[in-house]
Design goal:
This protein is of the alpha/beta class. Strand 8, helix 12 and strand 9 form a beta-alpha-beta unit. The chain is globular and about 55 Å long. Bound molecules: (3S,4R)-3-hydroxy-2-oxopiperidin-4-yl beta-D-xylopyranoside (XIL).
């Protein structure tokens, strides 16, 4: 039998199995028309879940490996790197015409045991940082749209957070990391990624002062990442958010929404899902109204796989597809905003 003849049947089967209705234009297509990247954090289910992989590739034009590019995963021993899973995610993205956000080169939470188990001199730790960034950003050179070079650099006062990195290398460690990243992959945008900086407050002021100083002194930096792990009943002030984005845009920086999810206090009700949908829509609208806001990424896409229930007791359902990969009101809401 001619194998080509079963292709229409396979397409029918995959549509029937995923519940995807053909009249719905995928988000990525709508986003592309608006000159925007829309995406999700992704995990190794790309290799195990057909619905997982199909939904991700159908709807998104960018992905962020949720954990697989982090320091402890890529660099599990001083003299050993492991890129197996990261390679799979980057390959998956490329096969499906998606871009990749690199997350993350340096983070206080992904320090592997071999680094914790000893004391470091300044020179030694700087060498570890340089080697790591050269190895990881260098391996994917030309294939990463943007790197979160340092993740969560700030404390809630807007000062450099205390960590192995800041305590050994001083607050300048982020600039060193940016220089190393530029050297390793000159084509990747270099982003400072942070949470709780949506409003104008001490933390976002600290971010502003820091990146403005980088721009003034010529330290390589291309943008600011707003994680946005928020609550469904958060009193979102769109004007304040817009003003905040504008001051970063005025520095010539890009804005990436990097980890959006909208967690719901259990139990879920239709009202809560509606509030969640409204919040997703309002955040996306603010991003679309700001020319510097080019990337809109959620921290996952299906409630089947999300960090929320593990991290916030009593919360869940923060994403735009339900546990059975069916679009939720939040999906319809962002679909509508992108269609306008
Ligand atoms: C989280 C992942 O989602 C979890 O699977 C992992 O156990 C811990 O890290 N901010 C970030 C992300 O920058 O890297 C975090 O991801 C969520 C908070």
């Amino acid at each position: 039998m001619n194998v080509l003849r079963i292709i229409p049947f396979l397409i029918f089967l995959s549509i029937a199995l995923t519940g995807y209705s053909a009249d719905e234009v995928p988000l990525r297509e709508l986003a592309a028309k608006r000159g925007m990247l829309i995406g999700a954090a992704a995990n190794m289910m790309i290799q195990r879940g057909t619905q997982y992989a199909e939904t991700l590739a159908r709807e998104m034009n960018i992905l962020t490996p949720e954990n697989e590019l982090k320091f402890h995963r890529t660099h599990p021993a001083e003299d050993r790197y492991d890129f197996q899973n990261a390679d799979a995610l980057v390959d998956f993205a490329e096969t499906n015409g998606m871009k990749v956000r690199g997350h993350t080169l340096i983070w206080h939470q992904s320090i592997p045991r071999w680094m914790r188990d000893r004391e470091w001199t300044r020179d030694e730790l700087l060498n570890v940082m340089r080697d790591h960034i050269q190895a990881v950003a260098g391996r994917y050179k030309g294939r990463i749209y943007a790197w979160d070079v340092v993740n969560e650099y700030f404390d809630n006062k807007g000062e450099p957070r205390k960590s192995l990195w800041s305590e050994t290398l001083g607050s300048a460690y982020m600039e060193y990391a940016h220089h190393f990243a530029l050297e390793a992959d000159p084509s990747a945008k270099l982003i400072v990624n942070e949470y709780d900086i949506e409003n104008i407050n001490a933390k976002s002021d600290g971010m502003y002062r820091r990146v403005k100083d980088y721009v003034d002194r010529g330290v390589p930096v291309d943008g600011v990442g707003f994680q946005m792990h928020v609550l469904y009943d958060w009193r979102f002030d769109a004007d304040e958010f817009a003003r905040n984005l504008q001051r970063f845009a005025d520095l010539g920086l890009e804005i990436h929404i990097t980890e959006l999810d909208v967690r719901i206090k259990q139990p879920v009700t239709p009202e809560k899902l509606k509030k969640q949908a409204d919040l997703y829509a309002a955040i996306l609208r603010t991003c679309l109204d700001q020319p510097a806001c080019k990337v809109f990424i959620m921290w996952g896409f299906t409630d089947r796989f999300s960090w929320i229930p593990f991290t916030f007791k009593g919360f869940g359902d923060g994403l735009i597809f339900d546990r059975d990969f069916q679009p939720k009101p939040a999906y319809e809401a962002i679909h509508e905003v992108l269609s306008r």
